Amino acid sequence: MGFWSEYGLFLAQALTVVVAIIVVVGFIAAAGQKGRKEGHIEIKKLNDKIEDTAELFEEALLTKDELKERHKALKKEEKEKKKAEKAEAKKSGDKDSDAEEVRKKRVFVIDFDGDVNASAVSSMREEISAVLTSAEPCDEVVVRLESPGGVVHGYGLASSQLDRIRKKDIPLTVCVDKVAASGGYMMACLANKIIAAPFAIVGSIGVVAQIPNIHKLLKKNDIDIELHTAGEYKRTLTVIGENTDEGREKFKQDLQDTHDLFKSHVNQYRPELVMDKVANGDIWYGQEALNNHLVDQVMTSDEYLMQLAEEADVFEVSFETKKTLQEKLGMAASMGITRSIDRVLTKFMDARTQIR
C-alpha cells in the first residue's frame, strides 16, 4: 500500500511539472506572437451549403426513380432560365448577350457580433476591404449585426467602416436577429435596408455614463487624494476625488452633445424618423420598430438570405486569425463559466412561468 501511495504521489508531481512547462512555453510563444496577429480571408458559398442540404434530404426521402426525374426537371428548368436571361439581355440592347453569359448578382455576407468596445471592427474592416475589391453596384452586401452597444468611439469607427460600402454605391442591408441597440443601431442606420426578426430589439438612441465615487469612504479613513490637471475641463468627474457641481454640469453637457451628434447621425441616414419620438433611449421589438420606421422589414436573416440565394450567388466572408494559447484558454474558461451560469438560470427558470 505504501508503494502505491508513493508511486501515485510521484506521478502527480511529474504531471504537475509537465503541465507547468507546457503552460510556460505556451505563454512565451503567445507573448512572441503578441502584436502581430496575422489572418486571412475565408469565403464560403452559401448556395452550395443550401444545395447540399437539399440533396441530402432528397436522397433520404425520394426513391431512385423519383431522384432521376427530379434531376431531369432541374436541368430543364436551368436551361429555360438561362435562355430567358439571354433573351432579356438581348431585348435590353446588349449586343454581346449571345457571346457572354449574363453575370448573376453577388451577395457578400459579413457577421458583426459587437461587444462593449466594438472589438469585431478589427475583423470587419478587413472583410469590407476584401469585399470592395470585387463588389459592384449591381451586387449587395449583407451585414448580420448583433450588438447591445458600447463606447462611442468604437461604434463610431464601426459605422465609418459600413459607410465605405455606401460611398461605393453598393446596396447595404443590415439584418438584426436579436439586438441592435445604441451603438448597434448607430451602425444599422447606415444601411439602405434594415431587416429585423419579430422579437429583435432595436433602438436605444441615447447616451449613458455612470461613474462610481469612493471619495467619502477615503475621507472617512483619513486618506487624502491630490489631483492635478492643466486645463479647466481635463477632468470633470473622478472616481476617487471630490466631485463638484461645475464638473457634473460639464459632464452632463458632454453627454448631451454626444446625444445630439448621435441623433444627427441617425437623421442623416433615416430622415423619415420622428426624432422626438424615437431618440429618447427607448427600445422597440420587430413590428413596433417597423411601425416607427426604425427598420424596413420584419424577417429573420436566414429567410432573407435563402430568398436571395434563389436568384443570386451568396458568399459568406470572414477574416480568420490564428488564436493564441492565451485566447484558447480564455475562451475555454469563458465557455465553462457561461455553461454553468446557463444551467443555474435554466433550473431557476424551470421553477417559474416564463411567459404568462
Task: List strands and helices in order, with pairings.
Blueprint: H1 2-33, E1 39-45, H2 46-61, H3 64-91, E2 106-113, H4 121-132, E3 140-146, H5 152-167, E4 172-176, E5 179-181, H6 183-188, E6 193-196, E7 201-203, H7 215-220, H8 245-269, H9 275-278, E8 283-285, H10 286-291, E9 297-298, H11 301-309, E10 313-321, H12 325-350
Parallel strand pairs: 2-3, 2-10, 3-4, 4-6, 5-7, 6-9
Antiparallel strand pairs: 1-10, 7-8
Helix pairs in contact: 4-5
Q: How is this structure best summarized?
A:
This protein is α/β, with parallel strands linked by helices.
Protein model, in words:
- The protein is α/β, with parallel strands linked by helices and 356 residues long.
- It contains 12 helices and 10 strands.
- It has helices spanning 2-33, 46-61, 64-91, 121-132, 152-167, 183-188, 215-220, 245-269, 275-278, 286-291, 301-309, 325-350; strands spanning 39-45, 106-113, 140-146, 172-176, 179-181, 193-196, 201-203, 283-285, 297-298, 313-321.
- It is elongated and about 90 Å long.
- The chain starts with a helix and ends in a 6-residue tail after the last helix.
